[in-house]
Specification:
By secondary structure, this protein is α/β, with parallel strands linked by helices. It contains three helices and seven strands. A five-stranded mixed sheet has the order 1-2-5-4-3, with helices on one face. Strands 6-7 form a two-stranded parallel sheet. A hairpin with a 4-residue loop joins β4 and β5. The longest helix is centred in the first third of the chain and has 11 residues.
Amino acid sequence: MTREEVLLDFTSRFNDDIIDYYDKSGSRLYVTIKPESIVGIGTYLFRNMGARFNIASATDLPPNIEILYHFIVEDVNLIISLRVFLDRENPVVDSLAREIEACNWIEREMSELLGITFTGHPDPRRLLLADNWPECVYPLRQDYEEWDESADRTRGI
């Protein structure tokens, strides 16, 4: 498949799920999609188009939280970044970790650090923060305030 064929297949197949897309360069595409479409689109990229899941990232951009799932279609040297915006007051989205095992830890990190709920995540345990870290305190949120100056931040390291 050529880059153009990949883009045509992707955009025509998921036209109703795509809110916007930005063809940044010959090797980079940003696609804003409906949050409820992440599992279907991510799974299709991974299983049907042979894209490799690279990483995901999230940031607090009031009034939303933005998640970017980055996939690489190596045959055509194309990175497709799926972007979803979640309501900051109730950031909930289906988990991709059910379909793509490599999403497991990064979704756990985003859950702990930004308060995103990944519905159906196979292992929602804490990964980074200490066991005594208080609920609903998210250190990567813009409104984070230190809750305990003497708190152990090493997690046993």
